[in-house]
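Notebook p. 47: complex prediction with 5-O-phosphono-beta-D-ribofuranosylamine.
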Amino acid sequence: MVGKEKSLASLFAKKSKKRVIFLASGRGSNFEAVAKNIRKGKLACDPVGLIVDKPEAKAILVAKSWKIPSFVVDFKNFASKEDFHKALLEKIRSLNPDLIVTAGFMRILSKDVVREFRMKIINIHPSLLPAFPGIHSQKQAIEYGAKVSGCTVHFIDEGVDTGPILLQSVVKIEEGMTEEELSRKILKEEHKILPEAIQLFIQNKLQITGRKVRIIS
Ligand code: GRF
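Predicted complex, structure tokens below:
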């Protein structure tokens, strides 16, 4: 009886966990950093799936190694961008997520996805937004002559890297640093603040007013 009660309790605990899905296009090191935190018991959420937009995305291998289901919505298989975005929305809906995490997903989400999951989609970006949005942010920071850069976790809105900011981490740009060196330094911080941001979200510790996100302790 005790055993039965225990297993029911754990079933209930499992059911009440927030469902998190991940969207990626590349190697998936941020996805892996989050998966590690979940498996270590530091993040109490259910990683219900990874969606990639190309079959060669290395993130799929990461998902396999962590036994997280992965799904390919291959951009190349669709006649139009609109069709791809419709299929992506369908896939997302089918996973019924409480939170969507984009980490190195190289496509702008459609307005339909943003509308349906407003303030439920977060992204990790390798600069201190609003500086250096878009691609090659580390290169942009070096070429601009910035003395510091870093990374940002923000909600996704209809713009490109413009949504409300949850967390940021700063790194120093050393004299003569290459894009690769800066990227590596920033990536280490990404791997810390992305799990942290997910934790704040799943614990309902974020209070959003306009574009300001307050962390409730
Ligand atoms: C990271 O630098 C992230 O900030 C950016 O794309 C890169 C993805 O890296 N959006 P990974 O696939 O998580 O290793």
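Notes: The domain at 18-117 is CATH 3.40.50.170 (Rossmann fold). The chain has two domains: 18-117, 126-217.
Next step: compare against the earlier run before touching the bench.
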